[in-house]
Design a protein that fits this description.
Chorismate synthase, AroC fold, 17 strands, five-stranded antiparallel beta sheet, 33% helix, single chain
């Protein structure tokens, strides 16, 4: 079973990712892992923290001579900003007068709920762990899941379809999405240049007014065969696992599979994808075809052989340069919410983090279905299954 966990705080010494269950023999390209970390840092509207950090994966265990060895993979990403926080957030008691309190909770953040839950006098420790900086570890872990899936011919990419009130009004092709992901200069990860320019104006408006802006990203999984997930048990449904995985990301408030939102207001005759059968081998893992993909590649909790499409709806970041009303923790007096160095728009970065979470979910199901202690064994089992469904 593939499992992962993360550790570390936003301004702590380092972030850690631990990935267990990867088969031995998966080729590990650290340049790819580091590029994934770089992609998470990009996007128009990112804050000053991204100018400080240069995220790089330091693999501590589980990889030798360029391949996984079947042991847990431990990854460290050093926080360069730690040098500015060593005395403010020491491991030992340190000097309490140097503590930098978050004295008034930010509406929309975990500040207040976290402080109440853990009985903290302010929200500093809540901020440190609840921060989206934690998603750096997820991206590192997800990069390893992507490398395993690549061994089985599956690829994952994302793009932005909405920022604030500006939305991409057409479908994007797989080639367009991968082209956006391959760019060395990332603005807002939209496949349409004119739409991206209007998205940029939306971010600039938020910046001028001291506000923040959210949006919608779309993650696409290409090359997934029919048969991942199950309808037999509620907690093993593929769509449920993906929704859980993406919803767990900071600031994501809704998840959509395929055209789920449109489907809710449509008739069945316009929503369900007619099924056809290709008379010749199309090169896909199955010869059952659908002209459209309104279901987002999943029917009944099981992948159906089409691209898996997951959308995440991201709320605006809750740290505003023009703070909202709040209350002081110590005196309960009305005040403005605390301000920490922050972003204006993080939709493209959230898409990269969502790719990682989707990759980890898909990799877990693939490992469960195809098994194998080595990448060679897993690929042999996978190829046998593909041959089975092609001859169905």
């Amino acid at each position: 079973m593939i499992r992962f966990s993360t550790a570390g705080e936003s301004h702590g010494e380092a972030l850690i990712a631990l990935v267990q269950g990867l088969p031995a023999g998966v080729p590990v390209d650290l340049n790819f892992v580091n590029r994934e970390l770089w992609r998470r840092q990009q996007g128009y509207g990112r804050g000053g923290r991204m100018k400080i950090e240069t995220d790089k994966a330091h693999v501590l265990s589980g990889v030798r001579h360029g391949k996984t060895i079947g042991a847990p993979v431990a990854i460290e990403i050093v926080n360069r900003d730690w040098k500015n926080w060593e005395e403010k957030l020491p491991v030992e008691a340190g000097d309490p007068t140097k503590h930098q309190a978050v004295s008034s909770p930010r509406p929309g953040h975990a500040d207040l709920a976290g402080a109440l839950k853990y009985n903290f006098p302010d929200a500093r420790y809540v901020l440190e762990r609840a921060s989206a900086r934690e998603s750096t570890s997820r991206v590192a872990a997800g990069a390893f899941a992507k490398l395993m899936l690549r061994h089985l011919g599956m690829e994952i990419a994302s793009h932005v379809i909405r920022v604030g009130r500006v939305e991409l009004e057409r479908a994007a092709t797989w080639d367009e999405i991968t082209a956006v992901c391959a760019k060395n200069e990332v603005m807002l990860s939209c496949v349409d240049a004119a739409t991206e320019a209007r998205m940029k104006e939306e971010v600039e408006h938020a910046s001028r007014t001291g506000d923040t802006v959210g949006g919608v990203f779309e993650v696409v999984v290409h090359g997934v065969p029919a048969g991942l997930g199950t309808y037999a048990n509620w907690d093993e449904r593929l769509d449920g696992l993906l929704a859980w995985s993406v919803m767990s990301l900071q600031a994501v408030k809704a998840v959509e599979i395929g055209r789920g939102v449109v489907a809710a207001e449509s008739f069945g005759s316009t929503v369900h994808d007619p099924i056809h059968y290709a008379s010749k081998d199309t090169g896909r893992p199955t010869r059952f075809t659908r002209e459209q993909n309104n279901a987002g590649g999943i029917e009944g909790g099981v992948s159906n052989g089409e691209d898996i499409v997951v959308r995440g709806y991201l709320k605006p970041i809750s740290t505003l340069r023009r703070p909202l009303e709040s209350v002081r923790f110590d005196t309960r007096e009305a005040t403005s919410a605390s301000y920490e160095r922050s972003d204006i728009c993080v939709v493209p970065a959230a898409g990269v983090a969502a790719e990682a979470m989707v990759a980890l979910a898909i990799a877990g199901l693939a490992q469960q279905k195809f098994g194998g202690d080595s990448a060679l064994e897993m690929k042999r089992n996978f190829d046998g299954y593909i041959e089975q469904i092609r001859s169905y």
